[in-house]
Amino acid sequence: MVDPETENHLRRIQIQKSLIQQVKSIYIIESKTHTSSQLALPVSHHYRFLLFGILLLSIIILGQSCTTKRRLIRQPLREEGESYLLERLAESEVKFDWLSARCNIVVVDDKKSKTEFNGQIRIQNDSVIWISLSPALGIEVARLMITSDSIKFINRLNKSYFIGDYDFISAIFQTTIDFDILQSLILGNDLHSYENNTFRVSIDAMEYKLQNTHRLKKRKYLKKDDTPNILVQSIWLNPDNYKITKVHLKEYGEDLKRLQTEYGNFKPIESQLFPTSLKIDLQSNKKLAIQIDYSRIEVGVKQDFPFKIPGNYSKMK
User: Fold this and answer.
1) pTM of the entire predicted model
2) Domain range 82-302, its CATH number among 2.50.20.10, 3.40.50.150, 3.50.50.60, 3.40.366.10
3) Cystine design at 62: which of 16, 46, 86, 111 (Cβ 3.0–4.6 Å)?
């Protein structure tokens, strides 16, 4: 079955061929008329010259359209190896020391209840993630600061706070989450603290797909008494720029717990492509959908991370 775009392209080619035949006919008529008479051109002759010009212009326009269409038709992807694709992925990643952005966040739970926030995100690479959330009125309702080993959270609605470890985040996402996963999730980068070996490469829907069914955390990132986290991961790469367009992630042996992300609306920020649209789907005991749209992205400007707990706030239990 021919798709509508290809059908329109073929129709333009047929029209172009028809116009060429008409131009040829007019050219033959003009040649005969010119050789049979050197007198002033009749009105019909002027008309044929005008028609000839219009048809010729139409052929040029259609020809350019067909050429553009041929360029838009993507050629079959060339098969590439694991090492090559991982190198291109590393080259295409967002690189920074400091980053800040405004964002709009929409959260939909499994009961279709929707909550919307405006927010600010500030990141010091591999060190701190700071997030401030506000409703439409602009008054901050929550603040979150995440480091490699701690979570701090303020809830201004009920005047409470939390200081603890990643069990807090894991309880929210209902799966094991660490700093590297969170930072990579926000930026559309790959995981840096996990091994890169044992990837399998395939082509899926005109994109490169990298699959790893046993991705381990590197030993240097493991803390004492840590249980190694084993991930099952699939990564889709855009073949034009090698940016991540989609990631499926789950823990080994936890088939009912999945984290899926999709990245889109890439825009150049400081000569780097940044995904300004992010969709997260969480599937565990409950389903959660999160849409994040970034704006006012700034890279390379040092940020501060204010986090002061008011004295009248109570600790979460």
Assistant:
1) 0.75
2) 2.50.20.10
3) 16
User: How confident is the model over 30-73, as pLDDT tens digits?
Assistant: 555 544 444 444 444 544 555 545 544 554 554 544 444 444 45
Which tokens in the block code for residue 100?
A: 């800040």
**Is the separation of the CB atoms in 82 and 190 below 8 Å?**
no
